[in-house]
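Fig. S4 source data, part A: sequence.
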Amino acid sequence: MTLLTVLSAPSGQDPAPPGGVSRTGARVLLRTDDPHRISAELAALGIGFERWAATATLAPDAGQPEILAAYAADVARLTADGGYRLVDVVRMRPDGSDPTWPERAREARERFLAEHTHDEDEVRFFVEGQGCFYLHVGDRVYAVVCRAGDLLSVPAGTTHWFDMGARPEFCAIRFFQKEDGWIGHFTGDPIATRLPYLDGLLGEPGRDPATGAATATGPAAPAGAATAAGAATSAATRGGAA
């Protein structure tokens, strides 16, 4: 089920701790899994949120053509409504048979784990798994844990970041106006290191359920701009998920 957690944005005056471990000074202002409340809260910010049906069963090895075919009607409708010219798929699935998967998953996760913006709207339809968009608006951060069936539309220029979790498993269909629409412009603000990551928000292993702080090693604070290469385990033709 979709989850919205609204947090007070921590001060940027103090330096971020080493290793990207979250600070815990932020207060939880709202936490809800009510889709109507989530839609209303985000609509007030100009952010679109809808619940669609995501019932197609995807084979473990399904790639972009198969996934887009499974959701062809949804893709056609949204493309027509929004005038999007380009559509692709990003999919991450754990692969215990591949010894390089943990490192590739870590690199994919860190690609958009720092605050950034895009030059066009960010439109994502989740059809499998989960991932969290953190939307930094004014003195608040809206952490939206998206799951299968969630359609999120983030306006161009919105400061945000995306966390797919320590063990990424999700599939999202992405809609673009331009070839380079996915490229992130990083703000340099380390705010993402001061708030709970996805696993902490959900109280999952490796995070303190009360604070979201890492109990072992958190993800390293990412540096630099987005790269053009997509995740190696992804069906996407462009980089990252955010």
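Fig. S4 source data, part B ends here. The mean pLDDT is 83.
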